Amino acid sequence: MFLFSLVIGAVFSTLAALCAFVITYEEYLKHYPDKRRPFLMAAKTSLAAFAFFMVVSVLLLVIINPF
To answer: How many folded domains does the chain comprise?
Structure first.
C-alpha cells in the first residue's frame, strides 16, 4: 500500500509540475523579451509544485495509513 501510494503521488506530482511549467512559462513569455529567464523561472515553479504535491501525498499517506 505504501509503495502504491508513493507511485500515485509521484505520477500526479509530475503532472502538476508539468502543468505548472506550461502555465508559468506561457505567462512569463509575455513579460520578458528573452526566453532563457522565463524558462528558468518556470522550471523553479514546476520544481516547487512537484515538491509540494509530493510532500502532501506523503503526509496524507502517513495520516491516513493507520486507519
So the answer is: 1
Which domain, by its residues, includes 9?
2-62
Pick the closest to residue 30 from 41, 14, 19 (CA basis).
41
For residue range 3-50, list pLDDT tens digits in order: 888 899 999 999 999 999 999 999 999 999 898 999 999 999 999 999
Q: Report whether 26 contacts 38 (CB < 8 A).
A: no
The whole-model pTM stands at 0.87
The Cα–Cα gap between 13 and 57 comes to 9
DSSP assigned state of 48: H
Residue 23 CB coordination number (10 Å): 14
67 occurs within a structural domain: no
How far apart (Å, rounded) are the C-alpha atoms in residues 32 and 38? 7
